[in-house]
């Protein structure tokens, strides 16, 4: 398969460039009979949308989704669902200056090398604009997962540059523009981001995603393990440079007696594993964490070369995030949703006759 | 696809349980004309093999590979290559005691839940014995990558529990039984592992993999990005709990001006990205790092339940590693090789007509 | 994968129902650098379009294609190409009468059984309207195949009901509305189709497709043989009930001495095989032939049941073809193009280093 | 995917050449808990095995299957099942004469062209010996289909050269060595085949396959329609040149009023469709028919070229079938079984919540 599809049974194929006519996706394999309306999708798109505070990018896209197929009288038909989002605010003039430069830290150089041609406007296909299509598809998956299994998926910014959340208040996440779960740190965050904007720089972030209510038994070892597919899906998000499940890199220094999650009669005593054992969900919360690099689209000039290989200096103006990690939260949630639903269907295909107790552990 | 295949064009399907008759794999899509002999595969299997020092497991398998198909007069034919490794030292009696228990930290519980049946001997399919088949397949990929592209892949233990390698001596890696690149730390390592064996415990590790000579242009955005596929492949290795590319989680606190790899005329000035931009290789070294959890097969008793849900205590005897991370080195190298070759073929399929300069950067 | 994608490297995913907002497709894996414009696609859509003579359906769709992505400054970028065709003439009122009936010979019954829900307007997803999206994608494949390999694909109606073409005049095919290659039979054809319309009945057809200039070496045995994939692609067209390669069912009575295509120095002496040997193209013309059943949407009443299982009579009015086989010609050509290009890329992936003589045989 | 796997959820990957060490397959995705033993597989292999009468090939292979993995205590575990069949009677000397020739009608020429290398002994990978692995995998699928759904699959030779079966006696099929259902024609068949052997020639055949008890709802439109996937699977069998579903090519001359299968309260009135509507099973018998070409391995000399392009004459001696169609019967049954099970699992994955009435129609 060419690389623009994800999933084996719930398959999402995205298309579209930052400055093309539209972005969108086709969702193939959605179970029939699910009530579906644009109103199920738009809120997640709005959460992801730029232009929501002075701290994120200034590009103002409405990101209004249209459902072109696959839904009849308000219910999915089991046929492909095509979602379309027209690009409305493209401002091509912002990019003509850098048409002949390779912006360091961006994919300009590699796309040009690979394809011999690239749509340089706004990063073309490599732009994170494409992730809007993923979020739209993820909304469908989330709805089905919630209705059918009671699965809930929530993400938050655990660390923004040097500033960590010290405790998790789930209600706080939706109350500030940073998806940050610790209200006491918000003023510090705002000051820090303001200073970055003034300096023309950016910073990285760590985003956590938790999935609750995941039934035990999901995952297709040995290669399509649930944790491996989650890692794949999360690493496919622009700017991600690391993925952890459960205790992640903290495992390196743990002993076996410390690490293993002992089992009691009705539950596990801990969740260092992060929700999977041997690549299959255990019924515990899925705990994933990703590292996002700082965006390279900053005002501080940097050294690069042009398309002819000559030295050049680059600085970007226009509409950029000082911290792309913030907007990654709904994208990461969507990717986890896509993987979980795909695996729920795969597990059902092969193992529907295996008696499963109600979700106790 | 069921989850026992990896790759889209260079497809490896593994089979086999720890205590079954044999393990093996089918490699479908190997280019024809490659000289191939068991002697190309056996060394990597020997590197992985247990029983090579007092510090690793005592199970003594010869792991002799047979080539059943796909090779004629010493060259690959382009048809599927089946590799077989007979199990010779299975000692089922070691596991009958734990037949009715779910060993915490292992996949017993999840396999039983998923399939309703499990081969409890040695972990069955969930055992890391299965990785011998991956290493065998990886040897084929490595040979082709080396001959055709000059790609070299090397891994090492960067950190074993609390003990870090302070510098990398590539020649040292093959001289000690730990794949450890810092000779000055070897005595400390040996003492530490001895103490773990006496205590009946285990510890985690960090393993790094470096791939050199990777041509620019590999990777299939937006989902099958090279970094995402590498993350998937590495996370599919038993005991892996985290994956980083380039600076990984260190990116969280980096600013954009620090992180981006500026481009000079003939090369990049740094490699924080870890070898990919926008999910496509840049020609720089691919730098990946994984976290391996400590094995849960330890002699220290732990709390668990039996198959009827009653409380029980577990302690395992027999042949186990105090640090599985050591043996993960050749497995991680093999997985990276499989991904790189698969992507080399995918890139060639679509972009063979794009003029590519010789590998300069 | 859910079943709405075809191809492994040149992957086409279609979406859309007969009476939904739009139909379309995403083409993923098109090589970059191909000049592409709507004008490359529209002619094939026009050939397929209904309403072109009194002998085909009266539904008048413009079938104007829009390119939403994957093309920049007139050339393909290697990223997904989304094609959209808005439905403009849907006339839902034609179908409300049959909302609760299962039209015999149609997919109403099976879609309802499978999904528990169906868009009954015009057959929904099962309508042959969906094939417009395939023809659009096929036009891209045809252009690339022609430019890169000199491949030419042409189809024609070989038999319409009882009326056979006695000789093939390639220039005649485009001159009449039946894709019929024998001018001497046209008056007879017209009279016959008029009589069917008056009787309110329909008839089947045989369509042949010839592909010239196909390089030797395409096909991925043992399952993805070129002939098997062509059979799959053609059988996926609505109304197809049989597929033959080369001499097809005439082989049953042939002896080996009659059937085999002997090889002379520069060519084969015959082409009973139809262009493949062992599932791989030989360089000879690919000769495929399909049988299309008569449409079941006719005015003659038929016995059926309603959605509650009660007996009912059905007759359909509105806009229907007396012979769907006529319109299958451009669809069959498109399907063959998709398969050939997918295989050209797959062959290139694995075997690009095998020296290939120029296309002599 | 490289082309040696078939299926999306019940995936079979075969390997092995005619004169290699072994042939075999890996079956990935078998539901767990199925009782499975070699005795479930061997009978179908014996039905396919050469050397069972003076009318089929003289190569005497035992075709003893070994199960290497995926079964524990007599039940499938849900993990990959590897099946191995050692080659025991290879007689390489039969083929050294033709090492440098391209046998007309065989895949020698195309394999050499595609891969630049071929195992010339017995046709290597292109030999129908490979189909033993398919039959072995098919036996597993058949068992599951029978137990879970009550599906029965049976094939027979409908026509051998000029000799047709005039009526179908299901019990007769297993009583003669030709899978022929009309006892009255057996003496004529024997005389005809004897005459072919004496003449050193061969003839084609038509084989029918019927699948009963197939639940309605199987098939994944629009591309992975059940009929399209059956056509693909059957056309992938060596020597197949045509596939028909239902009335097949007879549809060409049928009118709509003749063709459509009207629906009565409890059943369909006919089955011209052959068991599917819109690519989805209707609950009616699946009726497929294939045309097999006569083998080109005959004693009558033929014109060809050698590997250097010089004219040559070829005649083959040794162990060949005068009618390969006879042995295609169990292979065709196996292929239909693989497709039906794969589709049963795919349908279950997406549509398990759709209420399905008991199999009435």
UniProtKB/TrEMBL annotation, chains A, B, C, D:
Coiled coil: none annotated. Reduced FMN (FMNH(2)). InterPro entries: Chorismate_synth, Chorismate_synth_AroC_sf, Chorismate_synthase_CS. Pathway: Metabolic intermediate biosynthesis; chorismate biosynthesis; chorismate from D-erythrose 4-phosphate and phosphoenolpyruvate: step 7/7. The keyword Lyase applies. Its EC number is 4.2.3.5. FMN binds at residues 125-127, 238-239, 278, 293-297, 319. Keywords: Amino-acid biosynthesis, Aromatic amino acid biosynthesis, FAD, Flavoprotein, FMN, Lyase, NADP. NADP(+) binds at residues 48, 54. GO terms for molecular function: chorismate synthase activity. This is Chorismate synthase. NCBIfam families: aroC, PRK05382.1. The gene is aroC. This reaction introduces a second double bond into the aromatic ring system. Homotetramer. Its cofactor is FMNH2. It catalyses: 5-O-(1-carboxyvinyl)-3-phosphoshikimate = chorismate + phosphate. Belongs to the chorismate synthase family.
